[in-house]
Structure formats: structure tokens, C-alpha cells
Design goal:
Blueprint: H1 3-6, H2 15-33, H3 36-40, H4 42-66, H5 76-90, H6 97-102, H7 106-130, H8 137-146, H9 152-169, E1 183-185, H10 193-216, H11 220-246, E2 249-251, E3 255-260, E4 264-269, E5 273-278, E6 291-293, E7 301-312, E8 318-326, H12 331-339
Parallel strand pairs: 6-8
Antiparallel strand pairs: 1-2, 2-3, 3-4, 5-7, 7-8
Helix pairs in contact: 2-4, 4-5, 5-7, 7-8, 8-9, 9-11, 10-11
């Protein structure tokens, strides 16, 4: 009998086959932790079960699905995190310490995903430049993820988070994105939009230090959790502020590209514009049906569309709009550009 004749049939390496193997892992280990044997050596068996249900299940996923290229490499991280959650549920309370430690192994996997995105964005930029196409960083990130096997909503979430971290940490020497054939119009100076976000950032950092000092004296664990939350919130606010400065509204010969930092994006063909009203406009509620206010403050430009268009927000949120309110720093220059 040859080695090829006893090799596992390739058809087993399918999502259904992996689900069956993973179910066997959880069934067997679940029976172990609920048996009398577990009570005799709880520490040893808890460690073994923790390893099986996290590293073991992820390794099987890799061998059965990732290595044969049935799924993308980047899906290993969500699988690992799901395994950690499932292992925590399976193990009895008081025996989950090792699972909590193992979850930190997800950090290298997450860094690998970020590295993949960085490499993909750079390659995409070169390819787009060769084709004469200019896209901003968030659009390039979404384009890279759109070409993967990642589900659309998950790709939207990853693209939003990655864009926030890019603007917060890696955009400080960058100039605002303005294609060669477009004119930029900013919306963050006269209304203090960016200044407000930077003020919130500074206040959150001061609050973080004060609260951490007070809580850490009595509850170090709670202080660590609050510190992590505050740092994440600070990065978010900083990323939003930088995006507001780096992503102006763009006007080309054929399109109006409405941007509101990382919050809303709407590309309007100029022939789709029914009318434009300049000057101070009536303030409408942000949630008014069919209305999008593309910045902070009272609009000084109101655009009426011939028909509803789909505006895209963070995390894949969408809204159908037919009126767009702009709060521009230089509405006169925009009026002149639109009439030319």
C-alpha cells in the first residue's frame, strides 16, 4: 500500500469537514471538564483543554482550510478569537486563566493582518498610479479588502478601524489628498470642527490620567481596563480629527466628491445635481429623511439631487439622500468653481 493510497481524501478538507472536527474537539473536551476525572486534576486538564480548544482548533483550521487555500490566511485571526470565546464558555469558572493568557497570541496575528493591508495598499497605489487613477487611503484599504474573501460587512469594519489608526498615527507628514484634476474645499476651519475634535482629545487624555491615578490605588485591574478604553477612544478622536483635515470635499470636471472625514462619503456626478443654493441655509435635523449634512454647523450650501443616491458611512452604514448640506470654509470659491 502506497502513501498516496492512505492519504486523507481531499474532500474532507472542506468547511463542513472542519466543522465536524471542531465539534468533536468541543464535545470531547466538554465531556472531560464535566466528568469526575476533571475534579482529580483540574489544573492539568484545564491547561490541556484550553490548549485544545484554542491553539488546537486554530491549527486544524489552518491545516484543513487555510493551507489548501480554501479560505484566506487573514481569516485565521477571527477563527482564533472565536475559539478563545468558545473555550471560555466551555471551561468551568475558575479554570479560565490560561485561556485569558492565550488570547494575547492573537496580537501577532492581528499585526500580520495589518501588515497585509499595508502591503496591499502600497501595491494598489502603484497599480492605480500606473492606470492614472487616484484614490485616498480609506478607498484603497477598502479596495484591497474588497478583493479578498472577507465578507463585505467584516471588510467594512476592518477598513474603518484601519483608516482611523492610519490617520491617528501615520498621517502627520501627509498633505491633504487632492487629485491632480480636482479642486479642494475644506470644512473644518471657520466652524471649528477640527479644533473641537482636538479639544475633545486633550480633555479625554487629561481625564484618562486623572481617573487612572484615582482608580489604580484601589482597583489596578479596573484601572487597566479603563486605561485601555480611554486610549482607544483617544486614538479614535485623533483619527477623526486628522481625517477631517486630510479629506476635503473635491470638485472635478465631472464629479463632486463629498467627504466628512471618515463619517460620510458621497460621489455625485455633476449632471445628477438638480440645483444648488448658496448662502446661509435653513438648519435641518441630521436625521431628516433624505438629508445629509456633511460637516459641523449650519450649512452655507444646499445641494438638491435629481434622484436619491447612496451615501456610505463608517462600518458599512448607508443612507439614501437627495439633499446634501455643506458647511464650507470658502463657499464663494465653491460657487465660482461650480459655475465655471
Amino acid at each position: 500500500m502506497t502513501a498516496s493510497s492512505i492519504r486523507r481524501p481531499p474532500r474532507i478538507r472542506t468547511p463542513l469537514g472542519f466543522a465536524a472536527v471542531a465539534a468533536a474537539f468541543y464535545l470531547i473536551d466538554g465531556l472531560i471538564v464535566r466528568s469526575s476525572v476533571f475534579a482529580q486534576s483540574p489544573d492539568l486538564l484545564a491547561a490541556a483543554v484550553s490548549f485544545d480548544l484554542t491553539i488546537g482548533v486554530t491549527a486544524v483550521y489552518w491545516l484543513m482550510l487555510v493551507r489548501p487555500k480554501r479560505v484566506a490566511v487573514r481569516t485565521a485571526l477571527p477563527m482564533f478569537l472565536a475559539s478563545v470565546v468558545a473555550a471560555t464558555i466551555t471551561l468551568p469558572a475558575g479554570h479560565r486563566d490560561l485561556v485569558h493568557d492565550i488570547r494575547y497570541l492573537g496580537i501577532p496575528l492581528e499585526l500580520a493582518v495589518v501588515g497585509f493591508i499595508i502591503v496591499g495598499v502600497r501595491r494598489t497605489r502603484r497599480a492605480l498610479n500606473a492606470s492614472g487613477i487616484e484614490l485616498d487611503v480609506p478607498e484603497r484599504i477598502r479596495l484591497v479588502l474588497g478583493g479578498s474573501s472577507m465578507q463585505s460587512r467584516i471588510a467594512d469594519v476592518v477598513a474603518t478601524e484601519t483608516s482611523v489608526f492610519y490617520y491617528a498615527l501615520a498621517s502627520w507628514r501627509r498633505t491633504p489628498f487632492v487629485p491632480v484634476n480636482a479642486q479642494a474645499f475644506f470644512y473644518h476651519k471657520k466652524n471649528g470642527y477640527a479644533a473641537l475634535l482636538y479639544t475633545l482629545f486633550m480633555v479625554s487624555m487629561i481625564e484618562m490620567v486623572a481617573i487612572d491615578f484615582l482608580v489604580r490605588l484601589h482597583h489596578p485591574t479596573a484601572a487597566n481596563v479603563m486605561l485601555a478604553i480611554d486610549l482607544f477612544a483617544g486614538v479614535w478622536i485623533l483619527g477623526l480629527a486628522r481625517a477631517v483635515q486630510q479629506r476635503p470635499i473635491l470638485l472635478s470636471a465631472t464629479e463632486l466628491h463629498v467627504r466628512n472625514g471618515l463619517q460620510w462619503r458621497l460621489d455625485i456626478p455633476r449632471q445628477a445635481i438638480a440645483s444648488i443654493h448658496f448662502g446661509r441655509q435653513r438648519q435641518l435635523p441630521n436625521r431628516a429623511p433624505g438629508y445629509l449634512r456633511a460637516a459641523l454647523g449650519q450649512p452655507n450650501v444646499m445641494i438638491e439631487l435629481r434622484e436619491s443616491m447612496r451615501a456610505r458611512g463608517p462600518y458599512g452604514i448607508e443612507r439614501m439622500v437627495q439633499r446634501v448640506g455643506l458647511v464650507l470654509d470658502d463657499a464663494k470659491a465653491f460657487e465660482k468653481a461650480m459655475s465655471s
